[in-house]
Amino acid sequence: MYLSTVSRPQTDPPEAGSGRSGRRIALVSGNVVALGTVSLITDVSAEMVTAVLPLYLVLGLQLSPLAFGVVDGVYAGATALLRVVGGFLADRIRRPKLVAGFGYALSAVAKLGLLLAGRSVPLIGAVVAVDRLGKGVRSAPRDALITASTPPESLGRAFGVHRTMDAVGAFLGPLVAMAVLLAVGRSYDAVFVTSFCIAALGVVVLVLFVRERDTRTVDAAAVDASRGTGPGTDATADDPDGNKPGVREVFGLLRDRPARRLVVAAALLGLATVGDGFVYLLLQRRENVDLTWFPLLAVGTSLVYLLLATPIGLLADRIGRLPVVLGGYAALGVTYLLLAGPVTGWPLLVLALALYGTFYAATDGVLIALAGPVLPPRLRTTGIALVQTGQALAYLVSSVLFGLAWQAWGPENAIRVAAVAVAAVLLLTVLMLAPAYRPVPRKVS
Predict the structure, then answer these.
(1) Residue at 412 is within a domain
(2) Phi, psi angles (nearest 5°) of residue 2
(3) Residue 354 domain-assigned?
(4) CB neighbours (10 Å) of residue 288?
(5) Which sign does the torsion angle of CA 370, 386, 53, 159 carry?
(6) Number of domains comprising the chain
(7) Is 44 exposed, middle or buried (0-12, 13-18, 19+ CB in 10 A)?
(8) Which residues in the chain show pLDDT less than 70?
């Protein structure tokens, strides 16, 4: 796939936080910062629940590894298809902010549903599905807003900054959860109520500070610059008649070879990912981590993530996004090997969490930055949703299979098989994407 890059034309309306002297003064646009703030607040809420959920289900409700794998898979993948619905709806009505806001609000309300579910595993699974429905609906429109607010040559930087802010929330969430548990005597209900209040604040920030942008206008300006044409070119070059995209075009995306390869590769990579809950449970099991300090495992991962997300995003813009994504999954494979290897004690905890945080920093936003320029502007949100859906569905399958492997072969053998799967998937991804890949050329001032 060829990821083209163009300079922003001087006739483009000035972006918040940008200079017009030939170089950008600000690191990213104001819209990216606003979206990052929403993600930061929302991730505090989400990670409060994520940090205590494995303990609540496995140690509190005595779920088997297979049952936990099903719930964990539902948490990430059961509503995956709704990502495509959300992405298509945002492209159809051209209101990505509205669709993203609905998703954020739905996830906030779901936090209260955990109070009503009590100890019923089916009800907990249903509430978790509603929460992930909200995440599925909002993710692609949010990333499309970031893409529309950023010139193509700076997408790695923009997603890096956004994911850094997101990771700050992920870092703070488990700490807040731990503080609540210490203050009220391990009351999970108190964690869920606090999580809801924080999530509601994120929705307010989205409504007040995030600006909607017309992606067709932005991309038409980029087309003008790449063709050397002036500002007189129609602002809807990719959509000259102003027609709204139809369902047929969504299926047409998968007939486009670069987009299809990217979606398949994302699904394969998702299939090799067993999930945070299993990683932290394995660490807790091996090192006998006290249950009070269990949330700090997620804090360690998030700390590494927030420190590396922006530098790795800048690196991806410089050397290419595909090599960075592949390097991230290599770090994941090494993490799995460590969990079944001879290293123990503090060295294991530090190395495993550092590599796991590096994996997220090198893959989460960078994969979307890789996808953005490949996708047609009028269906960009839908295309991003397809990539995310492929990963999420594969993650659902992976979680169930890993739960089965844990029960059948034991945790150490199961994680060794997962490491082999990462190596195999990396090889397939290279064979699939590398022959057609060229890195984004750097902008020449």
Answers:
(1) yes
(2) -110, 120
(3) yes
(4) 6
(5) positive
(6) 1
(7) buried
(8) 1-26, 59-60, 69, 71-82, 186, 213-251, 292, 435-445
- Judge whether 153 and 23 are in contact, CB under 8 Å: no
Contact status, residue 404 vs residue 388, Cβ threshold 8 Å: no
CA distance 271 to 281: 19
Return the ∠ at Cα 193 (arms to 188 and 196), rounded to 5°. 125
Spatial separation of the C-alpha atoms in residues 343 and 141, rounded to whole Å: 42
> Tokens 């703070």 — which residue?
172
* CATH number of residue 335's parent domain: 1.20.1250.20
- Those residues whose C-beta lies under 8 Å from the C-beta of residue 57, and which sit 6 or more positions away, are 63, 67, 68, 71, 121, 124
* Distances from the Cα of 340 to the Cα of 266, 281, 297, angstroms: 26, 13, 17
As a whole number of angstroms, the distance between CA 151 and CA 20 comes to 13
At 419 the pLDDT is 94
Q: Quick one: pLDDT at residue 144?
A: 84
What CA–CA distance (Å, rounded) separates 115 from 109?
11
Query: Phi and psi (nearest 5°) for 443?
Result: -70, 130
What is the residue whose two structure tokens read 């995030």? 210
Q: What's residue 245's pLDDT?
A: 65
State the residue range of the domain holding 73: 30-224+249-436
Burial of 344 (0-12, 13-18, 19+ CB in 10 A): exposed
Residue 209 in tokens: 């500070």
Q: Is residue 426 part of a domain?
A: yes
Identify the pLDDT of residue 171.
Answer: 84
Residue 62 structure tokens: 């005595």
Based on its alpha-carbon atoms, the radius of gyration of the chain, rounded to whole angstroms, reads 21
Report the predicted TM-score, pTM, of the whole model to 2 decimal places.
0.65
Asked whether residue 345 is domain-assigned, the answer is yes
Whether the Cβ atoms of residue 145 and residue 100 lie closer than 8 Å to each other: yes
